[in-house]
Amino acid sequence: MHWPGLVVIRPDTQLLFAVEVELTPKTPAALRQILRGCLQARRKVIHLCTGAVVRQLVGHQTPGGWKDGIAQQVRLLPLGPPTGDGATLLHVQEFHLRDPGVRAQLERHTARHRVSTYTVR
C-alpha cells in the first residue's frame, strides 16, 4: 500500500484528490507501484516533480520518436505525448527549485543515488 504525500478535500465540493511530490528519480518498479495505487484509488492525483521524474512518468521525445512513460504503461495516461486536456486521473506538473542551496543538495543526492532515469520497461 502506498500513501500519498498529501490528501486534499475541497470544502465546497467534498471532492478528494491526492498530491504526490517526487524530487528524485525512482526505479521504474517503485513508480509503477505508486501509480498503480493511484489507479486503484480512482481519485485525481496531482504529481509535482522534477524534470527527470516527469520524463519517467509521462515519457519523452527520442531521436526515434516518442517513448511512453510509466504512467502510460499502467494506463493512467493515454499512449503518446501528453495532450494537456486534463481528462485523466493523473496530472503531472514539473516544478523548479528556486533556492540554489536546495538545488545543489538535490543534485548531490541524485548523483549519489543514481537510478536509470529513462528506463521504461
Describe how the helices and strands are arranged.
Elements lengths: L5 E4 L6 E7 L5 H14 L2 E6 L1 H8 L1 E3 L2 E3 L2 H4 L16 E5 L5 H13 L9
Parallel strand pairs: 2-3, 3-6
Antiparallel strand pairs: 1-2, 4-5
Description:
It is a single chain. With 121 residues, the chain is an alpha/beta fold. It has one domain (6-112). It is built from four helices and six strands, in the order ββαβαββαβα. The chain has helices spanning 28-41, 51-58, 70-73, 100-112; strands at residues 6-9, 16-22, 44-49, 60-62, 65-67, 90-94. Strands 1-2-3-6 form a four-stranded mixed β-sheet. Strands 4-5 form a two-stranded antiparallel ribbon. The longest helix is centred in the N-terminal third of the chain and has 14 residues, at 28-41. The protein is globular. The two termini are 22 Å apart.
